[in-house]
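To the team - iron/sulfur cluster complex, inputs and output below.
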Amino acid sequence: MFKREDTVKVKIGQGENAVFVGGDAPVSVQSMLNKHSTDFKGNIAQAVALEKAGCEIIRVSVPDINTVPLIAKLKEAVRVPIVADIHFDYKLAIESAFAGVDKIRINPGNIGDDSKVKQVVDVCKQKNIPIRVGVNSGSVEKHILAKYGSPTPEALIESGMYHISLLEKFDFDRIILSLKSSNVQTMFETYMGAAEVCRYPLHLGVTEAGTLRMGTLRSAAGIGGLLLNGIGSTIRVSLTDDPVTEVEAGLELLTAIGLKKGGVRFVSCPTCGRTSIDLVDLAKKAEIALKNCKKDITVAIMGCVVNGPGEAKEADIGIAGGKGEGIIFKKGEIIKKLPENELLAALLEEIERL
Ligand code: SF4
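Output:
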């Protein structure tokens, strides 16, 4: 099986702004602009917002030649590598490469005969641009669908490997593969199967995952499960929402499963009959106050003094509530006892000193 670190390491972008995907590179988070392709101003502002939110790769639809000039404008506005999303038209891929794009998403099986594929490959080689083959349940070729009856994991994998073979024919190996399905189980099985046969890095995603809450849950299950199995080198959480929320969800997912260091990990108890302070409010306020804290620490907000510090002894620092009061503890040791309304400020002050 090709686990993350066994895959080919692909460079996207140039110089110090380059992002690596695959091999020993950290898992990256990406998103896609969703302003209309004629709205250059809106797309540029969105790209800037995505970069600020921590997005590491930004994709833009290039549906026609009129959108190609947007690539140069995006490159001027942000340092993050830009990916052109192209369907069918090989000329748009070539034009995007000449316009300075950092990566192209295109399925070579959809662009026509070998000579067209070769032209795209030649330009990508010349410009050092990788290609992502992006298969999803709706794009599986007719002949493969006829063989499997529906877009099964086997059908999706066969389709992906077919597109890859068209690129390999011309000695191209700067490839990334995605095999998305909106069905979480199908997506999971597909990527698990793909990791058995594909040496290129895998871009993970549940396509059409839904709105913020369900989309995040479905992505966390599918993408998170694969990442925990050592599979997947870059992720996109697809949400029917502002793309900034995709980046936040992606980064939080990586933090939650321990693949991203830095930033506060929260531990808080669910509260129970022993809780005698307003712990829900306290935990929410602490989380908001520490949203931008970059310290690599675990903070615990626990409901009771009896069980709290013990259950959360792995935490670097925390609060445990009593009756109208509470304690601040560091690594399981009590350092302060304070009235309830002074706990949060004291906790933040202690974190500042860490
Ligand atoms: S830490 Fe205490 S208050 Fe919180 S759930 Fe456990 S026993 Fe209940």
